Amino acid sequence: MAISFDLTPNSLRAREHYHEMAVAHMRPISRKYDDQEHEMPTEWVDYFWKSGRGGPTGVDLSGPGDGFVQVCVQAEELCWGDAGLYLRMPTAALGGSAVAAAGTPEQKERFLTPFRGDGQPVWGAMAITEAEAGSDSAAVQTTADRDGDDYVLNGTKIFCTSGEAASQHEGGFVVVWATVDKEAGRAGIKAFVVPANTAGMRLLGVEKKLGIRASDTATLVFENCRVPASNLLGRAEVKKKSSKGAGDKGFKGAMATFDASRPIVAAMAVGVGRASLDFVKEELARHGIHPRYDAPAHEITAVERDVMEMEAELQAARLLTWRAASMMTHGRPNSLEASMAKAKAGLAVTRITQKAVELLGPAGYSKKLLVEKWMRDAKINDIYEGTQQINQLIVARRILDYPSSMLR
Question: Are residues 155 and 184 in the same domain?
Answer without folding.
Answer: yes
